[in-house]
Design a protein that fits this description.
By secondary structure, the protein is of the alpha+beta class. It has twelve helices and 14 strands. It is globular, with a radius of gyration of 22 Å. It holds the Pfam family Transferase.
Length: 423
């Protein structure tokens, strides 16, 4: 089951709940776009499309176009068209967790058509089913079906399951450790920082060294943020404990599997590199951190992935988790780095043109538990600029927002037009 809300701002509105290929409409006041705020198991996106004076009078037509094309897309990516349901009733006990909501939608969509003619399309995808690449495949396929442009994307739903067979049992300690490393009861805040193209170029030069002669913009910005976020944390705690950067690595794009995974393979096909910084052994200069990040990703090589495939892959994965546990035993400051720059979200065109801006995260200040120390990078407009969406402990964030060296390159919540330039 998927949920679609159609909201015409400052005009009539209705709430449409749609099952795959069927729909039921009822009069209601629609939830605001704030309902798409970040939730721990969902990856939210909001696409903002430019003003068109004719759009506000075509809300029903837009809704029909989106629902029809979405139905067609879900035929090809069918795991997202179902619903998650626990079948504990078949067992003599209740061994699993209870869902607060008996119906968990893998996909939720909200269309907002404003009186000015602008459009904001919000999409939430369950991160338990998809990663960023799968989200990109889904959105590009949907946009292609909606706009009538030939769809050259062919989702592959089988290869990954064969290469990485499902695991029947995961020891509870691994689940507990994962939850404790991901979620925290600390009060976190979300802030958006913009890096203009000139700032990106300057940071790439700043991060260069004999170890990494030509750092990518992802490496440069990640190293820069890692350095200053760690410094801000230390100014609060007064300690110099180690720091770890966990970076999301897409294993489709690294030619690591044999046979090769299709670039359109569906699922959570990611691994996390771990770059470990110990102040007793390494200085905290940016070029050193960039080299650590590069080396951490390089460790996810052919042998690394080969060990995780096949029937014995789960045992190898548990060994990997054991090694990561050793690194995390000292309770280091841990930062999660994810780059959505290559996913093409800024090019999603449903027939209305490309979005002028894509918001990739919502308000986390009211979410307890939350995901602390998460840094997500996305493209800014058509130039080489980058947006960094950051979730940090509010005390650490206050220090970072007053760091003059950080603010020399990062612009807090910049105007969209100034960051993205001409659209």
């Amino acid at each position: 089951m998927l949920r679609i809300t159609i909201h015409q701002e400052y005009g009539s509105c209705c709430d449409l709940s749609a099952k795959h290929q069927t729909s039921l409409a009822r009069s209601s006041s629609a939830a605001s776009i704030q309902t798409l705020s970040y939730r721990s198991t969902y990856s939210p996106l909001v696409f903002f499309y430019p003003v068109d004076d004719s759009k506000h009078s075509k809300t029903a037509q837009l809704a029909t176009q989106l629902k029809w094309s979405l139905s067609k897309t879900l035929d090809a990516i069918y795991p997202l068209s179902g619903r998650i349901e626990l079948l504990n009733g078949f067992l003599p006990c209740q061994p699993f967790c209870q869902l607060n909501d008996p119906i968990v939608a893998p996909v939720t969509v909200q269309l907002n058509v404003f009186d000015c003619g602008g459009i904001a399309l919000g999409v939430c995808l369950s991160h338990k089913l998809v990663d960023g690449t799968t989200a990109s495949i889904f959105l590009k396929s949907w946009a292609s079906n909606a706009s009538g442009v030939p769809n050259n994307i062919h989702p592959n739903l089988s290869d990954a399951a064969v290469l990485f067979p499902p695991v029947d049992y995961v020891p509870q300690r691994y689940i507990t450790n994962a939850e404790s490393s991901w979620f925290s009861d600390c009060r976190c805040v979300t802030r958006r920082f913009g890096f203009h193209d000139k700032a990106v170029a300057a940071l790439m030069a700043k991060g260069a060294s004999t170890m990494v002669e030509y750092p990518t913009r992802i490496q440069a910005i990640s190293g820069f943020i890692w350095k200053h976020a760690t410094a801000a944390s230390r100014s609060i705690s007064g300690s110099s404990k180690p720091s770890v950067a966990k970076e999301v690595v897409n294993i489709r794009s690294r030619r690591l599997t044999k046979p090769r995974l299709s670039k359109h393979s569906i699922g959570n096909l990611i691994q996390f590199s771990m770059s470990h910084f110990n102040p007793q052994h390494t200085d905290m200069e940016m070029d050193s951190l960039v080299a650590l990040l590069r080396d951490g990703v390089a460790e996810i090589n052919n042998e690394y992935i080969k060990d995780l495939t096949g029937d014995r892959g789960s045992a190898s994965y548990f060994d990997l988790l054991n090694r990561q546990e050793e690194i995390l035993k000292g309770n280091p400051e841990t930062f999660m780095l994810a780059a959505w720059i290559t996913f093409g979200f800024n090019d999603i065109d449903f027939g209305w043109g490309k979005p002028i801006w894509v918001g990739v995260m919502g308000n986390t200040s009211r979410c307890i538990p939350s995901i602390p120390n998460l840094i997500l990078l996305n493209n800014a407009g058509r130039r080489n600029g980058v947006e960094a969406w950051m979730i940090l402990d509010e005390k650490i964030m206050r220090v970072l927002e007053r760091d003059p060296e950080f603010l020399a390159y990062a612009s807090p919540n910049p105007c969209i037009s100034s960051l993205c330039g001409d659209f």
